[in-house]
Design a protein that fits this description.
This protein is 22% helix and 28% strand. It starts with a strand and ends with a strand. The protein is flat and about 75 Å long. By secondary structure, the chain is an alpha+beta fold. The longest helix has 23 residues.
Amino acid sequence: MSEGTLDVEQAELALVEHYERLVRLAYCVLGDSPRRAHAVTRGALPRRCTSTAALPRPRLRPEDAQDEDPAYVWLRLRVLRAALAGPRGGAPARAAYALRHLERMAEPDIRQLLCAARVKDPDAAMAEACTEVTARPTPGTPCPLCTAQPPHLLDVVRRRRYWRAAGAAVFAAVVCAGMLGVPGDTWGPDAAARPPLVRGTDGERALDPDALVRARAGAWRRASRVDFAAWPARGALTRDESLLRRALVTWARPRADVRVGATPGTPKGPPPGPPQLLYAGRLEGSAVVLLYDGLRVARYSEPLDPDGGSAAAKDGVSLELARTAGAGAVASGALVVARSEEEVRYLTAPWITRSAEVDLLDPADVTGRTLSRGEDGVTEPVQLPVTLPRHCESWPGLALWGSTGTVRDEQLYTDLGELTPARLTDGKGRAPATSAAARTRLARTVCHLPAVLDRGVKAVNSWQFARQRLPDGDGVAAWVCTRAGTWRGAGARVMTQFQPSAAAPGRPGAVTSRAEDTRACGPRDREVLTGLLWKSTDGHWYVLAAGDASVTRLRARGSGLADSPAEARGNTLAVRAERDASARLSATRAAGDSARPLH
């Protein structure tokens, strides 16, 4: 986007990346129909290059500065104007409230944006937003949207571009029909795989190797946002136009014999414009290309010797797609560039200064085995984790250290079957799982991770919500909640564990409950209650239960209990029971509300 001009393609990319945020803003202003909020948001896209010279630019706080995308700022203004317009338009006070609590804008910037949205009296709207709070949602859960899934945005973008291309085709046919059969459109060894295109369209440019975006070496040092967009093009084949064209054509329209895979929630459609080249080189008997379109990473692979008997020749041509929207410096630390049945190799970010393989089942393995890397940033092979818990004798993890200003300390990752390794964090603040206590919890958790393989997991966070002194002098147990969050936001998996003292540090904890697609155990919901039937070393059976720190009283009732109902003050409970006891748990929190077990 040039200074003062909004390009149509940039606006479409911004809409796809920030769609949920824009819909939530529109719904909060409208206050009625979620369907109307979706329609208002989709209608904000421009149909031609637009001037942004008069666009208000809010002064964001330093921690929010990286989110100030000019295309998003312009789309937000369009959404506000549309939501406030017409006889059924939302009240300006709701717009002021939404900008303050959803967009976290300062009052001068809210006033400026309301003026740009053609609100006649911004001061009155802001005053009403401050005083009339009864009809508005609480800041913690502002303007909840409907449960219906949002539309397939990449399809919306493609439809718009299709009609633009169709219009250009009609115009070209009228003006110069003979130019439609240009030599070169149907020539060449890969002509059969090429989709029909109109010259000069975004679809044609997306297949042109010369149009590929290439970041300069060292661009990440000057970038305001450090992510995959700051990666330079690396590898020995970055100038192989024939290979790059085959990769681009396969992404646009893969042949029937191409193996295509995508992480859950990742659109499989072509890039909306020329993608960025991250890597092109030879690995394990294959030519590999990594591309990035701002929302997804694509990995294209073809055998160097298709007629040979190597594993690469048997695998043939493949295309993998993974969603990476919103990745920061930590989440974009590495990509899987090659994977076999037993090993994986990573392409590390240009700001990574050291990489190592560590055994996550051994908390004492702090430094790990340093991984050598080539000039192109590709690591030597790392063993893949096991896929069956009963064979969980070791669990290789990837440790990365970065330079100052991006990844400031060690970060831990593990391979869960995706193009992006999953980050491993610990505690309510989701800090790197590198402390001694975090590594101990992680060592007893990783053998349960096969349950989230190939689920599009972005990060796995564990945190201890309770500690309990066990009966019969069996030491102290930790109660841990683990959440595997996804790149798409939905579909997170949660489990709670009981981790008693163990002779082997990597002995898995006992899973006491599981849940899917829930807010539990995340930054928005820290309320947990769970329990299990446990046998002490003396041979006695107990019903044990634990809740988060807000629980002040626990109760258990059912058959086979020594006392029913059994009650305990605090957030832990232990009651003698028979080996076939059955109990129902409940709890009371400090605020007086009740709690139910996680399901």
